[in-house]
């Protein structure tokens, strides 16, 4: 019970911080400079320019029918958190009055993308969403399975950005596209963290010696996988080892000092959990 309560408090804190960052990004940078960076908020900005209706209220009006249709598939806890987050975001957009920080479109694009991306990433980490194009794309996919969710999201955001080029001007559409890119990069960074670890596959006739030195000098675990060279038809042990970014040079030095003819494959490990790395909350 205490664990569940602690988790909910943490989720609520993440969502609240995310909402504030999103509202700052839009109210300080994106909305005042007519940068409609996709999503339902972007649609709301375009409607606001044409009718004067508040951006937050329009965004909420667009999202509520989607929640009504999708609540069952979202699950009650996630759906309720998301509905509360969507309402909170709309209220902040319309009621958080802030001065315009800059009219420089490059600065507005970069900082608006950074803040909104960080905010949406924190909201997702708090097990919630603010609705929008991902939910609409999921609904379209259920109605028409041939249209993938990613394709649906890309198409919807693309149409919003294209429309902004006509409602405002071509430059606004190009800035909006840059903002979407920055926001998505930051969302990935917040959700997954930096690529701070590397995975290595090592093929060598002296794998036992290499493994012993890695475990002794780097204090990292090594896994031996059974492999076979298809040309030579010889069985070989393939070593798998994951190290931090700072340890990659040392690992290469160990491998090639033992066996200069070793075959090594290195790749960035997007997410690494377990002893010596991140722990899943």
What does this structure look like?
- This protein is of the alpha+beta class and 281 residues long.
- It contains ten helices and four strands; from the N terminus they run ααααααααβαββαβ.
- It has a four-stranded antiparallel beta sheet, with helices on one face.
- The model has no long low-confidence stretch (mean pLDDT 85).
Question: Which key phrases capture this entry?
Answer:
10 helices, four-stranded antiparallel beta sheet, 281 residues, 4 strands, alpha+beta
Quick summary:
By secondary structure, this protein is an alpha+beta fold. It is built from ten helices and four strands.
Note the topology.
Elements: H1 2-30, H2 39-51, H3 55-74, H4 76-95, H5 105-125, H6 133-143, H7 149-167, H8 170-192, E1 197-203, H9 207-217, E2 223-229, E3 234-244, H10 248-258, E4 263-269
Antiparallel strand pairs: 1-3, 1-4, 2-3
Helix pairs in contact: 1-4, 1-5, 2-3, 2-7, 3-4, 5-8, 6-7, 7-8, 9-10
Please give the radius of gyration in angstroms: 24 Å
Query: Uncertain segments of ≥5 residues (pLDDT<50)?
Result: none
Topology pattern, helix = H, strand = E: HHHHHHHHEHEEHE
Number of helices: 10
The strand order across the widest sheet is 2-3-1-4
Helix content: 55-70%
Mean pLDDT comes to 85
E-strand count:
4
Shape: elongated
Question: How many strands, what sense, and barrel or not for the largest sheet?
Answer: 4 strands, antiparallel
Strand percentage lies at 5-15%
Give the terminus-to-terminus CA distance.
Answer: 16 Å
What structural class do the secondary elements suggest?
alpha+beta
């Amino acid at each position: 019970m205490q664990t569940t309560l602690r988790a909910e408090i943490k989720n609520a804190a993440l969502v609240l911080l995310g909402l504030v960052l999103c509202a700052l990004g839009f109210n300080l940078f994106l909305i005042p400079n007519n940068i409609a960076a996709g999503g339902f908020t972007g649609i709301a900005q375009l409607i606001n320019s044409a009718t004067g209706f508040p951006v937050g209220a329009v965004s909420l009006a667009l999202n509520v029918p989607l929640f009504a249709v999708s609540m069952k598939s979202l699950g009650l806890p996630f759906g309720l958190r998301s509905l509360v987050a969507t309402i909170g975001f709309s209220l902040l957009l319309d009621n958080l009055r802030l001065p315009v920080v800059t009219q420089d479109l490059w600065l507005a694009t970069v900082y608006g993308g950074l803040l909104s991306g960080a905010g949406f990433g924190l909201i997702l980490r708090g097990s919630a969403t603010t609705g929008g194009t991902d939910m609409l794309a999921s609904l379209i996919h259920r109605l028409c399975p041939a249209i993938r969710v990613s394709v649906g999201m890309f198409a919807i955001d693309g149409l919003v950005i294209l429309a902004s080029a006509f409602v405002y001007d071509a430059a606004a559409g190009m800035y909006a596209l840059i903002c979407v890119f920055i926001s998505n990069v930051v969302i990935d960074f917040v959700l997954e963290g930096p690529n701070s670890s590397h995975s290595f596959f090592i093929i060598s006739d002296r794998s036992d010696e290499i493994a012993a030195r890695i475990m002794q000098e780097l204090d990292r675990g090594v896994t031996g996988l059974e492999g076979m060279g298809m040309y030579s038809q010889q069985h070989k042990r393939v070593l798998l080892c994951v190290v931090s970014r700072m340890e990659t040079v040392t690992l290469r030095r160990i491998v090639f000092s033992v066996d200069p003819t070793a075959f090594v494959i290195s790749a960035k490990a997007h997410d690494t959990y377990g002893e010596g790395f991140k722990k899943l909350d």
